[in-house]
Amino acid sequence: MLGGMMVNMTDVKHLLAVTRSFASWKHGMKLVLRYFADRLSGHHRGTRLLLGNALAGRLFHGLLKQKIPFWLETPALALEQDAGGAVTGVRVKRDGREIVLQARRGVVVATGGFPWNAQMRAEHYPAPTGPYSMSPQGNVGEGIAMARQAGGVLGTGHVGPALWAPVSMMQRPDGSMLRYPHLVWDRAKPGLIAVDARGERFVNESTSYHEFVRGMYQANEAGTSVPALLVCDSDFMEKWGLGLALPGGRSREHLVRAGYLYRADTLEALARQADVDPDGLARTVAAFNPPARARRGPGLRQGQHGLQPLPRRP
Q1: pLDDT confidence of 312, banded at 50, 70, 90?
Q2: Before 128, cis peptide (omega within 30)?
């Protein structure tokens, strides 16, 4: 938020209610004032760390406490090896020149994955695959490539090749892509269903984001569920929002024009816009609503109220 303010789910709930609750206004003002104080102090982002940022910050704090030297802007180029093939160090580029760091005991390649390496995705990911990842686009598996060049191999027999998350995308006017990860805020809330091209549900929508995408790939073997569609009514949109569409009466016309959202007054019209089987979607909603209203049924969440076939507002 605001170009670098860290928030958690509790913070988001308060920020969305700042005009309706004094407690939320007070909570939100404390967050915003601290953030601007950080920026005015010269930090390029807020110093309040949460979730994964808090984990990384704690690890870095441990490094500083132990007075371990660290270099930024120093890409690793290759692992150095002796005549017998043992790794003896690493070649890096620092201040415009290449230097070799010798290791007394060993080298740890603490690297990320390869979500922005199209060739490796094709080799290791199930199909279809594409540039959908929320990770930095420089994450192309260079550390893995260095280790392979030194004789390392990738392991086999793993449950899966990635940590998955469903992501929606919108193309900006300049051609760039904006991505949104559907982790918890909208996808797991009452009143939303995920359907494939047949209009059929294929997963418990409130499952973890990793299991959600596993369900997408499993269902894709029988029908087109990649991409999948998240379907909700106007009441859900006003309360929770959907992806880049914010809740609380905010304008969404630009998202409709961009093709990010489909909007219609009937399920049949909605299905035809989204290239989904209208009969299949109608059957799914008809089967979904009664047990959801009764708070029972396989794969449904406590308190789920169902998806209304006809929204009260377009």
Answers
A1: very low
A2: yes
Helix axes 9-16 and 22-40, enclosed angle (nearest 10): 110
Among 200, 197, 171, 166, residue whose Cα is nearest residue 183:
166
Report how far residue 169's alpha carbon sits from residue 259's, in angstroms, rounded to the nearest whole number.
10
Tens-place pLDDT, residues 51-73: 888 999 999 999 999 999 999 99
pLDDT single digits (tens) 179-204: 999 988 899 888 899 999 999 999 99
Q: Is the peptide bond before 309 cis (omega within 30 degrees of 0)?
A: no
Three-class SS of residue 101?
Answer: strand
Closest residue by Cα to residue 233 from 312, 142, 155, 180? 312
List of residues 6+ apart from 80 with CB closer than 8 A: 87, 88, 89, 90, 91, 100, 102
Task: Report d(CA 12, CA 203) in Å as an integer.
Answer: 26
Rounded Cα gap, residues 189 and 302, in angstroms: 10
Q: Read off the pLDDT of each residue in 257-263 and give the average, rounded to a whole number.
A: 94
User: Which tens digit of pLDDT belongs to each residue from 86-111?
Assistant: 999 999 999 999 999 999 999 999 88
Enumerate the H helices of 48-141 as residue ranges: 51-65, 118-124
Q: Which of 220, 188, 202 is nearest to 280 (CA)?
A: 202
Q: Output the six-digit token pair for 236.
A: 């859900």
Query: What confidence score (pLDDT) does residue 65 get?
Result: 97
End-to-end alpha carbon distance in the chain? 29
The pTM of the whole model exceeds 0.85 = no
User: How deeply is 173 buried, as exposed, middle or buried, from its count of CB atoms within 10 A (0-12, 13-18, 19+)?
Assistant: exposed
Question: What one-character DSSP code corresponds to residue 95?
Answer: T
Nearest to 220 by CA among 289, 166, 268: 166
Looking at the chain, list the stretches that DSSP marks H as alpha helix, in order from N- to C-terminal side: 9-16, 22-40, 51-65, 118-124, 142-149, 209-220, 234-240, 253-257, 267-273, 278-293
Strand-pairing partners, residue 245, are 242
